[in-house]
């Protein structure tokens, strides 16, 4: 089954949106297989955002993601990578549709609450960067047959 990496950024944690975000993924029917709250190191932040290393906003982005606790999660389900990106909305919250997490709760691009992997291969890379194998649970919710046909 497909998995994606989701992180609630320091602004989302500070604003008390952890429960709301988890609720949306649970209500959709996805399965939580990994969860931890961590203070992100500069090394981890720079590795995670490595694709943006040359961008002008890179150091500010690393400063921001290391500025407070982050809730790191792995969610599992059919098509979860693309579905999570839709649930999250566009990078710029002002351009995100209402009903998306960024569209409902954010304004500025540098305070956009949540990260979600952008492709299946990216998800695999990010999951192994943030989680050890023994931090992920292999389980199947008893409700599965009411979510999948
Ligand atoms: P996303 O988080 O939607 O995958 P991204 O990978 O392009 O977006 O960028 C990673 C993060 O970097 C993004 O969530 C917020 C920040 N960012 C992106 N573009 C930016 C910009 N033009 N100015 C400031 N911050 C930016
Ligand atoms: Mg991205």
Automatic annotation (TrEMBL):
Top-level taxon in the UniProt lineage: Bacteria
Subunit (UniProt): Homotetramer.
Reaction catalysed by this enzyme: a 2'-deoxyribonucleoside 5'-diphosphate + ATP = a 2'-deoxyribonucleoside 5'-triphosphate + ADP; a ribonucleoside 5'-diphosphate + ATP = a ribonucleoside 5'-triphosphate + ADP; dZDP + ATP = dZTP + ADP
GO molecular function: ATP binding; metal ion binding; nucleoside diphosphate kinase activity
Binding site for ATP: 9, 57, 85, 91, 102, 112
Annotated function: Major role in the synthesis of nucleoside triphosphates other than ATP. The ATP gamma phosphate is transferred to the NDP beta phosphate via a ping-pong mechanism, using a phosphorylated active-site intermediate. (Microbial infection) Catalyzes the phosphorylation of dZDP to dZTP, when the bacterium is infected by a phage that produces the substrate for the synthesis of dZTP (2- amino-2'-deoxyadenosine 5'-triphosphate), which is then used by the phage as a DNA polymerase substrate.
Protein keywords: ATP-binding, Cytoplasm, Kinase, Magnesium, Metal-binding, Nucleotide metabolism, Nucleotide-binding, Phosphoprotein, Transferase
Enzyme Commission identifier(s): 2.7.4.6
HAMAP family for this protein: NDP_kinase
Active site annotation, chain numbering: 115 (pros-phosphohistidine intermediate)
Encoding gene, per UniProt annotation: ndk
Cofactor: Mg(2+)
Class in the EC hierarchy, top level: transferase
InterPro entries from the UniProt entry: NDK-like_dom (IPR034907), NDK-like_dom_sf (IPR036850), Nucleoside_diP_kinase (IPR001564), Nucleoside_diP_kinase_AS (IPR023005)
Keyword Translocase: no
Residues in Nucleoside diphosphate kinase-like domain copies: 1-138
PROSITE patterns for this protein: NDPK, NDPK_LIKE
This protein's name: Nucleoside diphosphate kinase
Intracellular or extracellular location(s): Cytoplasm
Family statement: Belongs to the NDK family.
A GO cellular component entry from the record: cytoplasm
Broad class of the protein's primary localization: cytoplasm
Organism: Lyngbya confervoides BDU141951
GO biological process: CTP biosynthetic process; GTP biosynthetic process; UTP biosynthetic process
Keyword hit for Transferase: yes
